[in-house]
User: Fold this.
Amino acid sequence: MITRLHIVLLLLLVPAVAAVPTPASHFGHKIGVDNELLDWDRVVTYFQALEKSSDRIRFKELGKTAEGRPQIAVTISSPANIKNLDHYLDIQRRLADPRRTPPADAARLVNEGKVIVMITCSIHATEVASTHTAVEFAYRLLTEDNNPKFKTILDNAILLLEPSQNPDGVDIVTRWYRKTRGTSWDGTAPPELYHKYVGHDDNRDWYIFTQPETRNTASIENIWHPQIVYDVHQMGPNTARIFVPPWMDPVDPNIDPILASICNMIGTGMAVDLAAAGKTGIAMNAMYDFWSPARQYQAYHGGARILTESASAKLATPITITPEQISDNALGYNPRQRSWNYLVPWMAGEWHLRDIIDYQSIAWESLLYQAAVRRSDMLRYFYEINKHGVERASPYAFVVPAAQHDPGAARKMLETLAFGDIEIDRSSDTFTAGGKQYAAGSYVIRMQQPFSGWAKTLLERQNYPDLRLYPGGPPKRPYDVTAQTLPLQMGVDVGTIDQKFEASLKPATQFSFELNHPMPAGALAASDVYSWKEVTKIWKAGRPVYRDTASGDFFKAAANGRKTIPPPRIGLYKSFVPSMDEGWTRWLLEDFGFGFTSLVNGEIQGGGLKQRFDVIVIPDQARQTIVQGHRAGSMPPEYCGGLGDKGATALKEFVEQGGTLILFNHASDYATQDLGVNARNVLRAVETRDFYSPGSLLSVTLDTKSALAYGMPGEITLWSEQSPTWEAPESQVVARYPAKGVLASGWLLGEKYLTGKAALLDVPMGGGRIIMFGMRPQYRGQSYQNFKLFFNALVYHG
Assistant:
């Protein structure tokens, strides 16, 4: 007989799931309703509340963001697995390094371990849905006890869920959305970068690790080495409803074929499950390639990188797409036509935030269930992939000599590799490798290690395939860029050694280099990029800095042949059309200790610039955007317009009165078309079928007599993204393309258009000068060698 006391006792024994707070109770509305976005602090407190109410989840703060917000991840699995996380982590570590785990032990661990899946969300903050999906999906995993697929997932998988890789951006976008919701600007992107420094480039930082958010995420990947990392994104609204792998060509040859095949398998399975759920508009093998490590760190660390891209609404505002608005031309497929990789086109209709979440939720469940069902296979594949790295035979090693032209850049390069779990040794004696003698203190990166593919893809030159839309036709556009060779970008001497050699080596975790040329006592070498950090520290201490007018080296004391260089008063143009290049420039200036002032349109148009600034920098941006900005009516009035005629007049006056104006890459067109610089961009009318440099490293020669070239070798590489190239008076040319052998790494069509032409101009005008870079000298915080060209330009006014 059941008494009231029994009922009370039974209620007390109800599982913790009853106390798990619903998203609606926490946020005040259901997830995915129209016109509602989430605040980051509420997302954080929700996941903290989930941890308090369930034994299936653990909460962790990974670190702080660029603006100081908490960046978080949660671990979700069965209660038994959660209690034994350390045990499963140990299994992961042992499978990640086949050198310490013989095959017999690996077979046992494969049967015992759990598959580790990481899902990362909303790195691009205007791609708002996945943070919402994370909230709802986590709740479902903790509460849907009668879902057999979820039970399989929880028992066999450990999920590492990062609700946003860009928490600052979550709040930037939410704040802007609420300000403009219901206005003519409803659903627009904010007039600022949605990451403090790098905006959309925050997922192009996966091998240089400049930003705290990237380092925070990579740190947890370095601990767990997940078998799968699923990166959840959105795209434009006028093509497919969702993209899933397989990827388009090309696939980086340094990515293991097993791993690439896993991507194909899982992506195809997601497509099946989406179709079975009645979803249409599913694209595969389209738009996105598998080439650049800048956005797929895990693919070189034993983990399959899965990407989905869902069609967007106007943030949380629904849209209606008509048949006429559907594009008929997307890379790899036609969104209006049925094809093998786009079986049921989505042709028109309403599209809501809720729709995006529904598509994503199906894809998430599909991926996790596939991984869970094939748990032992995924662990076995993981072991084999890492075993392939250990067995790598060619090249045998890379050697970084102890003496370098730029010791600071060489140190930074090795620190980058070490952060990515690459083992680096240092020689205690001289040795011979590849027919060359190396001094004691040289560093050796042997390829016989699990993640050797990552070191190899960063250290070698890329040979991007010549892909065309059709035979003889225009080039097939890469999704991002085609090269990343760090020794070329950083100016580091690295030897590639094919044959095994003997050397006395010890593991190194701290790195230091000598200069490869003599220096006077007390000098800071102009060739060492990190000398500039010391220079800015001296300025901040209120002490003078002197520069040798012949070598460019820095000194703390005056002497014959030395010139005082005062700290430059820098103005940095900041358009209301956000420029990632402006953000990278701002990050670089702050990182190296330069003071500067951001200048918006009105501050330049007001004139009187020379009284406040010695140098003004206009980062890479299209000339039309600089001049016109946002068109009237497309944004609130205070954010519309560009520099216009008033801005051009003010900048001319600034230069003529003795100021230095620096323009990066495509912004240089502003100098020739609006400021009267006499230089012709020879590429302006050339079609891409004839000339194409889509993110390539190109060789140039420098005029080392120029003050812009202090500390630089006579030959360097620069970053080219269809960058301007000029015919100009000889006296103005500082960097020039050679007669042949222009391509250093990546892909280049039409070398003939570059040979002998200028890539860096120093143009006198009145009492000042205009410096035009046919490159981005601070490219994504990577091109350490060319930072010095920029820094030299900043103090050129003296």
Q: What stands out?
A: The chain has four domains: 9-389, 392-455+483-515, 522-566, 568-794. Residues 7-17 have pLDDT under 50 and may be disordered. The CA atoms of residues 435 and 579 lie 47 Å apart.
